[in-house]
Model the fold of this input.
Amino acid sequence: MRLERLRADHADAVLAFEVENREYFAARIADRGDEYFAEFAARHQALVTDQEAGELHFHVLVDDDGRVIGRVNLVDVADGSAELGYRIAESATGRGLATAAVLEVCALAAWQYGLQELRAGTSVANGASRAVLDRTGFVVVGETTYEGRPNLTYRRSLTV
Done:
């Protein structure tokens, strides 16, 4: 498994990952909606362009066969901080891949992207996501409601 910075040539593999896991993800978080899939190519190119401008940092977790099996993204990059988001394919869960990928992105955020803090959030009901955040040094800093579900908000300092 390897983590790669999102590139234009990842488009087909990322779309396949999202389509294959759509139902699995929708059971845990809000569905992306049909428009996301219908306009995927243009959206993907826009993300690559925004990434080149430093507005976000997207990564894909790729298996030995070149299939995308996960995503770890940093969005809302501003003032030394960003929001972390991640998703792992159903077929790849339970192997520590999310934890390893989040740790790698935290290191990239500090050393390559110059960030000092990351924020994250997850549903109270999503025990697997909460465990990843706990194992990777994030701490709960509050509670919110997102789409009618109770959520926890997390922060992680990247400074030593």
